[in-house]
Design a protein that fits this description.
Layout: H1 2-5, H2 27-39, H3 49-61, E1 65-69, H4 72-83, E2 90-94, H5 103-107, E3 111-115, H6 126-130, E4 137-143, H7 152-161, E5 166-169, E6 177-178, E7 181-182, E8 189-193, E9 206-210, H8 213-223, H9 247-257, H10 260-278, E10 284-285, E11 293-294, E12 299-304, H11 312-322, H12 340-343, H13 371-379, E13 380-384, H14 391-408
Parallel strand pairs: 2-3, 2-4, 4-5, 5-8
Antiparallel strand pairs: 1-9, 6-7, 6-11, 8-9, 10-12, 12-13
Helix pairs in contact: 2-9, 3-9, 4-8, 10-14, 11-14
The chain binds pyridoxal-5'-phosphate.
Length: 410
């Protein structure tokens, strides 16, 4: 009897985006990488692969300019540097995002001001952005979280009415569209990451995009220590870093980019199968996608009403982990503003710069200002997926969630 009750659940190994089980790379990448090495030219200032990547990515997205960088964080830093805030200026951003979207704001001496998120899409909204706009707002930076687009048409209306530039963080939303138009092309600058776990990857890497000539030029310079390559009298024009991608990375990126459309359609198919299998569970909601939007599923999120399950979200997540389904009960443990760097203003020495210049309201992170954020974090179950998931993997995940949800149902 006792052994029956303890019967171990048969686990299936799910493909992981941290290694070759869940990443589609091989001969195509090797071929171009070999060519880069054989050429002996590994710097993008002289080589061909990074240039090719930039041209092809701009063409794919339908923008005038794209520049490659060495991380997604570098892409966002480059974008903020191009906007060139004055110390103490504010950049509106989101409480649920990667820290790589936030520290660049602080490095460029601006204050990240957090807009609340919608508890069912986890994205900032036109309303939550408008609520925190001030006379100090220098830019708006949105994250299309998990691959689900923000409401860009309305957000752009608000921004354009006040001439505020918009940066779109598309690190998780390659291929996502609104009425057929790619995210990253609504705002003034798009930023992408090629980190290990993203839709396409080179381990580390990133891209910035823009159709604004002046912003694109400034981004190019920022990536290149602001050295005016090719100018009549080049100089280091302003404070900037070396964020260049190298040719080895560029070669792999070119091969990965060629597969992006296929990866995106794989992910949307997998997500559709998950939704079909999970849409009738009490207290569990499949992803909310607004009319006209194409979600490209960096992750697949369920919204769980904890009070409808015994032990709530945490118990559900624990039981799924026991079955080899490594879901985060929360994508991030806490809102970004509760991280020490921001909460305790640990920046440059003991100066607290630039937070020492902030309006008190801009750095007031009282819980009651962020109801959507706390509700989102308390209810989101983040499930991984990648281009190597086959139907047996999807079935395994769906069957186990169904079983556990029924066992825990009140
Ligand atoms: C991954 C990610 C970043 C940072 O990109 P890195 O390449 O890891 O530096 C920024 N924003 C979001 C939303 C991300 O998912």
């Amino acid at each position: 009897m006792a052994t029956d009750l303890k019967k171990p659940v048969k686990k299936m190994e799910l493909p992981s985006d941290q290694d070759s089980t869940g990443r589609d790379m091989g001969d195509d990448e090797m071929l171009l990488l070999g060519e880069a090495i054989a050429s002996g030219t590994l710097t993008s200032t002289k080589g061909k692969f990074v240039k090719q990547l930039e041209e092809q990515f701009a063409q794919y997205l339908g923008v005038d300019h794209s520049h490659a960088v060495n991380s997604g964080t570098g892409a966002l830093h480059t974008a903020v540097a191009a906007i060139d805030p004055e110390p103490g200026d504010e950049i509106i951003t989101t409480s649920i995002t990667d820290m790589g979207a936030l520290t660049p704001i602080i490095y460029q001496s601006a204050i990240p001001v957090f807009a609340d998120v919608c508890p069912s899409t986890y994205n900032v909204t036109p309303e939550s952005i408008e609520a925190v706009i001030s006379e100090k707002t220098k830019a708006i930076m949105v994250t299309h979280l998990f691959g689900n687009p923000c409401r860009m048409n309305e957000i752009m209306e608000i921004a354009r009415a006040r001439s505020i530039p918009v940066i779109e963080d598309c690190a998780q939303s390659f291929g996502a569209t609104i009425d057929g138009r790619y995210v990253g092309t609504f705002g003034d600058i798009g930023c992408f990451s090629l980190q290990q776990g993203k839709h396409i990857t080179t381990g580390e890497g990133g891209l910035v995009t823009s159709s604004d000539e002046a912003l694109a030029r400034r981004m190019y310079l920022f990536i290149n220590k602001a050295w005016g390559y090719g100018d009549a009298k080049p100089d280091h024009y302003f404070l900037a870093l070396n964020y260049r991608m190298n040719e080895l990375t560029g070669a792999v990126a070119v091969a990965q980019l060629a597969k992006l459309a296929e990866f995106v359609s794989r992910r949307t198919e997998i997500a559709a199968a998950m939704t079909a299998g999970l849409s009738d569970l009490p207290g569990i909601h499949t992803p909310a996608i607004a009319e006209g939007m194409k979600h490209t599923f960096w992750k697949y999120c369920l919204r769980v009403e904890s009070d409808k399950l015994k032990g709530g979200l945490d118990e559900l997540a624990k039981r799924l982990k026991e079955r080899g389904i490594f879901c985060g009960p929360r994508y991030i443990q806490k809102p970004a503003f509760e991280c020490e760097v921001i909460r305790d203003q640990r920046t440059f020495g003991d100066s607290r710069f630039p937070f020492n210049l902030a309006r008190p309201e801009a750095v007031d992170y009282s819980r009651d200002k962020f109801p959507g954020t706390y509700e989102a974090l308390a209810s989101v179950l983040v499930l991984p997926l990648n281009e190597k998931y086959e139907s047996q993997h999807v079935d395994y995940v769906v069957q186990n969630i169904r079983e556990v949800a029924h066992k825990l149902a009140k």
